[in-house]
Amino acid sequence: MAKTRAKIAELDPVWARIVREAEEVVAAEPLLGGSVHISILHHPTIERALAYRISLKLANGEMSEQILREICDEAYSSDPSLALKARADIQATFERDPACHRYLQPLLYFKGFQAVQSQRVAHWLWNQGRRDLSYFFQMRSSEVFGVDIHPAAKIGKGIMIDHAHSIVIGETAVVGDDVSILHSVTLGGTGKEDEDRHPKIGNGVLIGAGAKVLGNIKVGDRSRIAAGSVVLAEVPPCKTVAGVPAKIVGEAGCDQPSRSMDQKLTGCNCSD
What is the DSSP letter of 222? Predict the structure, then answer.
């Protein structure tokens, strides 16, 4: 057993840490033992645990947990990047969210993380041409998590969605890597236009609570959008924008605003 665990830790340190933390939870809080076992300790890999968790959350009278789990298992088996991105999301949440003290918390408790993983499976279905099934995932994720991300939206890795309530991300939106998004953010369109109509968010961007980014506009790498802002025009890299409509109010303040999570409208120059 010790050799097996050492091998797992070497090959998949994120999953090994989740398993270790799960065992600690069971020891400290026996009443959660059944839930933690069936959600984490029963599974040999993080892929299987993710499939179980998503299917458990999204199942309803129209679609059974077993069917959804088979779909998720197929997605993770066919596209290994899904679970790699999930691992990056867990690490991002742990590093950026002061309320996250263990790796297992996003997997078990955080609806922002769970909603993003559900969308990743829906996006896989979308790319497979299984559009109606992907819409089912979107519908259930919206109902269960209060997060509405279109299955066609492209979401990078290392994503942290804090609190996650009332997040909306449109069909042609693109979210880069290492992006942090707070609650009540909308990445939407400006009307009834078709085709490419949603924002393109660069890498390392921090989007404050309640911000609305509307239209087919680019938000440059490592920029910051202040809470409550309405962004209607392109945001250059390494800048901070604020207001309604949003205007440039200064530099981003650091090289990695999405990681520093500093939302004060002060700071130093942002280097390239």
Answer: T
Question: How far apart, in whole angstroms, are the C-alpha atoms of residue 240 and residue 29?
Answer: 44
What is the percent of the chain where pLDDT is above 70?
Answer: 94
**Helices within the chain (DSSP H only):** 2-11, 13-28, 33-36, 46-58, 65-78, 81-96, 104-109, 111-127, 131-145, 257-260
Among 2.160.10.10, 3.40.50.300, 1.20.120.160, 3.40.50.2020, what is the CATH number of 153-265? Answer: 2.160.10.10
List pLDDT tens digits, range 40-52: 999 999 999 999 9
Residue partners of 53: CB distance under 8 A and separation at least 6: 39, 107, 108, 114, 117
Domain layout of the chain by residue ranges = 12-146, 153-265
Query: pTM for the complete prediction?
Result: 0.92
